Amino acid sequence: MNSDINYTLMALVPILKMNHENVEKIEAVQDWYKSGGREYMKEVAEITYENGHRIYADIGADSNLTAVYDVIAVIQGIKPRSSAIKRIERSVYEMPVSEWENFCNGKPCPYTNECNENGMILFCRESKGKRERYYIRGRKPETDFYSFKYVCRRDDIPVGGYTKEYLEKLYKSSKEAFPDMIPPSIDVWIDELKEMGMYKEDVKE
Predict the structure, then answer these.
(1) C-alpha to C-alpha distance for 47 and 55, rounded to whole angstroms
(2) Pick from 30, 156, 149: which is nearest to 103 by CA?
(3) Residue 118: phi, psi to the nearest 5?
(4) CB 164 within 8 Å of CB 202
(5) What is the C-alpha separation between 72 and 78, in angstroms, rounded?
(6) Residue 19, φ and ψ in degrees, nearest 5
């Protein structure tokens, strides 16, 4: 699959909306499944509607245009939806960045009441031709700093939790991008993640 596949798929969204298909997002993802004791992967397009409903279309081809056909064919009922979806892995391919993305579909945020009514707040910067995305749902009221307690997309948390090495990289890049929103010390984040049970202590062999 071409690395820019999601730019092609997301370009379909406004066209579909113009034709009364309430599609909010289309993303090329990986579906991992087990067969005969082994795990296999197939690429599918995850089609998310405004009401949160999701359907899937098989797009296992090298051509972006073929993937476009597969997606439209599934939406129109020309081809069957991908079935037996097991374990979806997202963020495999880069997504186009928009100023606002409505991840919550207007539902009240369970983490904070400071969220913009359109959904998750997205900050973006461009560095060496690569666009880097930073998501934030709200700020910790007593400190006004970025807080993991208010992160909405908790499914993006590294497997096993955050290590100090990972946090140091995140802290450095975030400090460069949004210095006024980052705590004065990384220890603030470490203490917070420990309290939440999301900090992974470094294991020494």
Answers:
(1) 5
(2) 156
(3) -85, 0
(4) yes
(5) 8
(6) -105, 25
Let me know: does 61 contact 5? Beta carbons within 8 Å.
no
Listed residue (131, 126, 122) closest to 100, CA to CA: 122
- Mean pLDDT for 197-203 is 74
> What is the rounded average pLDDT of the residues 90-98?
76
Measured CA angle at 187 (ends 135, 158), to 5 deg:
45
Q: What are phi and psi of 42, to 5 degrees?
A: -135, 150
- Cα angle value 34/38/42 (rounded, 5°): 55
Q: Enter the DSSP assignment of 29.
A: E
10 Å CB burial of residue 177 (0-12, 13-18, 19+) is middle
> What is the DSSP code (8-state) at residue 146?
B
Helical packing angle, 5-18 and 64-75, nearest 10°: 40
13-51: pLDDT as tens digits: 889 988 989 898 999 999 998 888 898 999 999 999 988
With vertex at residue 10, the alpha carbon angle to CA 9 and CA 16, rounded to the nearest 5 degrees, is: 90
8 Å CB contact between 42 and 60: yes
